[in-house]
Amino acid sequence: MSDQVLDKRKLNMIKVKVIEIEKNNIIKKDPNDTIAETIRKYIEKVVDGKC
Amino acid sequence: MLIKRLILKNFRQYIGEQKIDFSTDREKNVTVLIGVNTSGKTTLIRAFEWILYNKNDFDDKNLLNKNVADGMQMGETQAVRGNLIIEHEGVEYEIIREQIYTCTGSNVRPSVSKAYINYLQPDGQTRTQIGSDFDTNIERILPRALSSYFFFGGERVGAISSREDIEASVKGLMGLDVLSNAMSHLRTVINKLKKSMDFSGDENANRAQKKLDGATKQLQECEDELETVSGQVEYYQEEKEKYAALLRANEETAAAQHRREQLDDVIKNLETRIEKDKKELISAFSRNSFAFFSLPLLKSAVQMLNEASDDTESVPEMTAASIDYILRRHRCICGTLISDGSAAEQNLLQEKAKQPPESIGSLVRRYREQAMEYISSSDDYYDIIEDKFSTLRNDQRELGFRIDERSALDESLKGAKDVAFLERQYQNAETRLKEFEQNKTTLLQSIGSCKKDIANYEKALESYGKANEKNARIALNVAYAQATFDWVAEAYKSRESSVRSRLEKKVNANFSRMYHGNRTIAIDEKYRVKYLDVTTEESDGLKAVKSFAFVSGLVDLAKEALTSDKSREADMGPQYYPLVMDAPFSNVDETHIRNISQILPASAEQVIIAVMQKDWEPASEIMAPVVGKSYQIEKQLDQDGEEIDTISYIR
Amino acid sequence: MFDKDMQIRGKYATYWKALTQLPGNANDTSSNTFKVFENYIYVYMVAPIIGLLHGKRAQYDPADDSKDTAGMLAEIQIKNAAKLKYIYRLIILTDDSQGLTNEEKINWAFREDDNEDSVKRGMELYTSYFFGGLEILYNEFVNECITDDDYVRKMYEIVSEFKDEQNIDDLTVDVEALLRS
What we know:
The structure holds 3 protein chains of 3 kinds.
Chain A: H1 8-28, H2 32-48
Helix pairs in contact in A: 1-2
Chain B: E1 2-11, E2 14-21, E3 30-35, H1 41-53, H2 66-70, E4 77-88, E5 91-103, E6 108-110, E7 114-120, E8 127-130, H3 134-141, H4 144-150, E9 151-153, H5 157-160, H6 166-173, H7 176-196, H8 203-286, H9 289-293, H10 295-311, H11 320-329, H12 343-354, H13 360-414, H14 419-467, H15 469-514, E10 521-523, E11 529-531, H16 540-563, E12 579-582, H17 590-603, E13 607-612, H18 613-623, E14 627-637, E15 643-650
Chain C: E1 6-9, H1 11-19, H2 40-53, E2 69-72, H3 74-79, H4 81-94, H5 102-110, H6 116-140, H7 148-170, H8 175-180
Antiparallel strand pairs in C: 1-2
């Protein structure tokens, strides 16, 4: 998959969001599937989006 | 986090409402609570744990002050309350826990305790209660798993640096858990995305997908098995080390066993010698004892004889033979004629009858000579007896020592294990270890080739997938997810090893400042603290120092991370915590106390210690410049001046 | 004297045996296992001395019906005749129970060996001190000692104390030293 050209800004947004989600989850302790789902949804949104 | 104030109401022996303001000064950051013996230091530490985590480790679970409880009427209620005021991330919080006790006539019954947190608004005035989950919020401020590192009592000190759940806690402390969670979730996302790619229309893609599924499954199986095998490898490694250490210790046992056999011979010889000594004593005692004991009698006899030989002697040296001669020649020495039947002849015959075969003088002389012989032999008598006696005593004493020595050896040998058994176990462990390591290598190879296969199939799928627009989109998501994953993994790896090596360095630095010996500490991947030179006994003092070194290293590291450059992207700095300790010096000798006192204030933002008066003395001098506040815990005295156990005051 | 097999009976025989290591064929009637003297003859020599020192004589007790016996053959006595006779004479010289003058004692001790009657009386005196000494020794040792160590210590004690008592005449007795010791 390394031959894909990725948008730097989009990638950064995802990175920041993932860390934020994980930090919050240290306390909340949602189940793994929920978190994975949240992350996936966000990636989809960013990748599909134009911003 | 800074602890500002503790208020207790009727909590155990602290009757009424009592408060402690802790020092929050940056320089004088130590607060000391000094008690005389059992006046409630541990209770104060446990008060923290009760307020924060509802933990009640007391033997008697009733927290209500006994005096108050005794004075209650039936149906009356009293409250036990604890308030903890802390500052966390610039905000002041008040944590309150309360438990109501109702008097049932003979007893008091507690209710379930209730807890809530208030926080002070930035304007410094209003307090707002946080409605949501108490435990969650406390967890955010001071996680329960970590709490036992920062609130610890003297007895638990030794156990800390060998706990196995340290790994998780350290990771939490250093923010590594965020990263590792991210990695695992991203992996899930990637797998899900890949799975969601649809190749149902495409024969080639289907086949490739099936192959990929197969390979993935096999990979999973191999990885699972690898984990098991790794576990076995670790287990047998430890077994091997364990038996190696036992065998090393056993060399001493072999020497001890040999010594013991030698002792058996020595003891048998001594016993024989002692019997001989006794016989010799008896013999010495028997022979010539008469001479020794007759000494005083002899002296008086000899004296008598000396006197007597003067008057019983009529004519010196006159013998019967002499008289016979005179009688035969019928003429006395003086010339007088002695005729048969004459009076002179009668006198001479009477005289002759009195004479012994020899003169009294020579008899006495001979007797005296004999006596002198016996006297001189008795001179030796005492010396010989004394000599035999002391030889016997020495041998008996020696026997006593040897028997003691043998008993001591027996004691120490009792625990010793059969060497042959140890050898077998060691060999067994080594063999199994080799087996499993071999196993592991094979598995790793399989895993390697599985991964290669998977990569190939994925590539194949990718090329099939590109054609499909939906799949293309998914593939793109996967790419972003993967890139994020790689970034997190990289950060985790470098951070983790940096954390561990920095921690190791700090702990060693602390350790060498606290302990005046030659030891190096290593921290393994599970964050367990090990000495590099293994298997010798650890004294309590050493355990305590090891734990301090570890914990203060941890706190130090955390502090460093916080004050490091905040402008980096997505910083996830950990928190810093105060150190709250109960009897930190109780099992440690004076030199160690001094060393620890020098380090402690600098190793945490805030240090709170509860000590006994006698333990505080050696430390107080050194810590004086950094003590911000100090309190005495005293028991109340009754009218006779005796201490009341159930009532204490903090002044 | 001292040239015939001799034997005693009753409790004094028991005492004698209790104090002495017995030859293999003897019947040990005593209850103690530690024997203070090596041989009968040594007891026969020192017991009279002990009796004499304490002024103690003893006779057969008519009420004593014990059948126990102990004795010695002529041979061992003849071998030690010189010592035995020496002791015999010493007893006669130092005994005060017969009311004799010094001259009479000396005569009895030295001049009357071929007088059957004198020798008989002399041996009676010897035997009476022998019995007395046996009783003293038995009380000191067998009645007071139990373990081997008790006996050993007692042996040493007796000898040391006796020696110290002899030395008392020679030394000036110092009150200060006595108080300090």
